[in-house]
Design goal:
Distance between the termini of chain B: 25 Å
Number of helices of chain B: 12
Number of helices of chain A: 7
Order of helices and strands of chain A: EEEHEHEHHHEHEHE
Shape of chain A: globular
Oligomer: heterodimer
Structural class of chain A: alpha/beta
Shape of chain B: elongated
Radius of gyration of chain B: 30 Å
Order of helices and strands of chain B: HHEHEHEEHEHEEEHEEHEHHHH
Strand content of chain A: 15-25%
Radius of gyration of chain A: 18 Å
CATH superfamily of chain A: P-loop containing nucleotide triphosphate hydrolases
Largest sheet of chain A: 5 strands, parallel
Largest sheet of chain B: 9 strands, mixed
């Protein structure tokens, strides 16, 4: 499949570029292809939704963009960098420095408070000077409306609040690419809207590209662009 | 947030299981520390109390028993030796100092030792005893010089008078009447020396003979010496050649034995070494079990926290960082156990030393921390490092993607 490239502002590299990108997994002794993208280009600062049913490769694409998975074939450039060709250690540093990840189930560290969860990735990237980290973490948590919950642990926070901490954590190292995997799927509708609004706002404010995987039509309808992912298990892609 | 802070947070988030694991490490280190501390104290005490004496002359019997009874005041003497041996050695030009002993009576559990002021001079010369004890303190029969602990425990001070019990067993007051007409007079109290002298009461050699000349129809107590006999002799000579000559000379006498105390102490230490090895073996076994407990705990933590570990990787933590995190956790647990075990081990050793001294009269002074004792917590930390590194290696090699899935 081919995704048409949007107009790219001059002087800035695309957030994500892929060419003949394929990824397959071995299941039950057989190779199952879950992703096959002919070309893909996501401009910097753009907000894209990844649509499609479960198993269509949305999460796999996010993992590839984050450098958590390696392509089976093809080329992938993230923020102008051929992530798949980097040694693992450099991929880790690249991810820490340039990519923010928001999970469906928040994935906060239960032993840490909200502010410590936000401070955590700063220690992995060295993008923020050590003396400024706490201030930045507080600022981010205030930005997501949790200035009064800085020292609460995840167990003491509602789901909506936990996802806000997750968003603040994803922004900790000022990433140019935000990846969100079903970020509202664990939330009630009202909280889902608020969290989605927040994600779009902070991505716009920071100029980060946002790639958001969801199978929720309400969520996808709010996004500027939606990429309809095909499935490769013999079921036809869902209509756009 | 650095690795140690994060590791501490994780450790603190599972207080019960981590405390139990640390206690397991602590028990191993406790056993090692206590055993090593007590062994060092025993060796030090034996060498301090018996090393350096050139020759001990005692009645035929166990050489170790002769050393324990004469130098440590712990065991019953092997018997008495003729006074003629004392006279013979007094006339020997190769002898520079000669200390006779008579044992027999006691006061409130403290042995009364008949000797001469040369004993204190010998203690002073060898660095074991108090300096400047007045030679006149034992000038008259029934003068008593009291060791520091004996004085404290028996409530004696200079000027005190007391009546001794016959033999080494404390009898009820109504039965302990044998020596009621013979009162001892305390002329001096020795300062603490850390030697067996602290527990004993010293009197003139003559006192022992006078006491038992008045025993009448009583049989002499075990070790009590009738006039014409003494219990033992410590001999210092001009040279080891003289000591060898004297030992050879006395070897012809079937009633006496010449013992080199240092040699007997070495033999005694060899016996103790066997016991020490058994206890140390058990302690190392306990430490090894604790090692596996730490390793299992860290492996369990790795499995329980797969999703969190995957999350940390997704946030940019490298495998090396995660390995350091798991190892740091392991070190914190092992370190807490090692520290606790070390402190409790020293405390246990002190308690056992106190008990041994109270029940056996054998002075064990825990001195400085030996390198061996430091090796115990050090080894525990090293094992903690390995116990963390093994599960860390497996955890960090695991594919994280399946654990980033969306199940809450």
């Amino acid at each position: 499949m081919t995704f048409a490239a949007a107009v790219q502002p001059p002087g800035r590299v695309a957030a994500v570029e892929a060419f003949a990108l394929r990824r397959s997994f071995v299941q039950g002794g057989e190779s199952v292809e879950v992703l096959d993208i002919a070309t893909l280009s996501i401009p910097p600062g753009a907000i894209y939704g990844l649509a499609g049913p479960s198993g269509c490769g949305k999460t796999t694409l996010l993992h590839l963009c984050a450098g958590l998975l390696q392509p089976s074939a093809g080329a992938l450039r993230v923020l102008g960098t051929a992530v798949s060709l980097m040694p693992q250690r450099e991929r880790d540093r690249f991810r820490a420095r340039h990519v923010g990840y928001v999970f469906q189930s928040f994935n906060l560290i239960p032993a840490l408070s909200a502010i410590e969860n936000v401070l955590l990735p700063m220690g992995f990237a060295d993008a923020v000077p050590a003396v400024q980290r706490r201030t930045r973490a507080e600022t981010l948590l205030r930005r997501v409306g949790l200035g009064h919950r800085l020292h609460h642990r995840p167990a003491a926070l509602s789901h909506g609040e936990q996802q806000r901490v997750g968003i603040a954590r994803a922004l900790a190292n000022q990433p140019e690419l935000l990846l969100a995997d079903e970020p509202t799927a664990s939330l009630e509708a009202a909280r889902s809207d608020a969290v989605l609004d927040l994600l779009i706002e902070v991505a716009t404010e920071t100029g980060a590209a946002l790639l958001l995987a969801s199978h929720d039509a309400r969520v996808l309808a709010r996004l500027e662009h939606v990429l309809q992912m095909p499935v490769f298990n013999g079921v036809a892609p869902a209509p756009p | 947030m650095n690795t140690w802070t994060l590791a501490w947070r994780y450790v603190a988030s599972r207080p019960a299981s981590n405390l139990l694991t640390a206690l397991g490490v602590g028990i191993g280190v406790l056993l090692l520390t206590a055993t090593l501390a007590l062994t060092a104290a025993t060796r030090e005490s034996l060498q301090r109390s018996a090393g350096g004496y050139q020759l001990l002359i005692a009645a035929k019997g166990s050489a170790v028993q002769a050393v324990l009874s004469t130098l440590f005041f712990m065991d019953a003497p092997t018997g008495n030796i003729p006074i003629s041996v004392y006279r013979q050695l007094q006339a020997d030009v190769g002898v520079t100092r000669l200390v006779p002993f008579i044992f027999g009576d006691s006061y409130r559990g403290h042995l009364i030792v008949g000797t001469t002021a040369d004993y204190f001079a010998l203690l002073e010369e060898s660095g074991r005893g108090p300096a400047g004890v007045d030679r006149d303190s034992l000038a008259r029969p029934f003068d008593a010089v009291v060791g520091s602990k004996a004085a404290r425990q028996a409530g004696l001070a200079v000027g005190s008078r007391f009546v001794a019990s016959h033999g080494l067993v404390e009898l009820p007051a109504e039965l302990a009447t044998e020596h009621a007409d013979r009162q001892y007079h305390v002329t001096a109290v020795l300062p603490p020396t850390g030697s067996p002298a602290d527990r004993a009461i010293f009197t003139a050699l003559e006192t022992g003979w006078l006491m038992h000349e008045h025993d009448g129809d009583h049989a002499p107590a075990a070790g009590a010496s009738p006039r014409g006999e003494i219990t033992a002799l410590l001999v210092q000579g001009r040279s080891y050649g003289d000591m060898g000559r004297i030992a050879a000379l006395l070897a012809r006498d079937t009633r006496v034995q010449a013992v080199v105390p240092g040699r007997e102490v070495t033999r005694l230490l060899q016996y103790l070494r066997a016991g020490e090895e058994v206890v140390l073996g058990l302690a190392w076994l306990a430490t090894a079990v604790a090692f596996f407990a730490v390793m299992l705990s860290m492996a369990a933590a790795g499995i329980d926290r797969r999703r969190q570990i995957a999350t940390l990787r997704a946030l940019g933590a490298s495998r090396a960082m995660l390995a350091r995190l798991l190892i740091a956790e392991s070190l914190l647990i092992a370190g807490a156990g090692a520290g606790l075990g070390f402190v409790l081990g020293r405390a246990a050793a002190a308690a056992i030393a106190w008990h041994v001294e109270g029940s056996r009269g054998f002075s064990l002074e825990l001195t400085g921390i030996t390198p061996g004792e430091l090796a115990a917590p050090g080894a525990a930390m090293l094992l903690g490092l390995v116990a963390g590194a093994i599960p860390a290696w497996f955890t960090c090699r695991e594919d994280i993607v399946p654990h980033l899935s969306n199940a809450p």
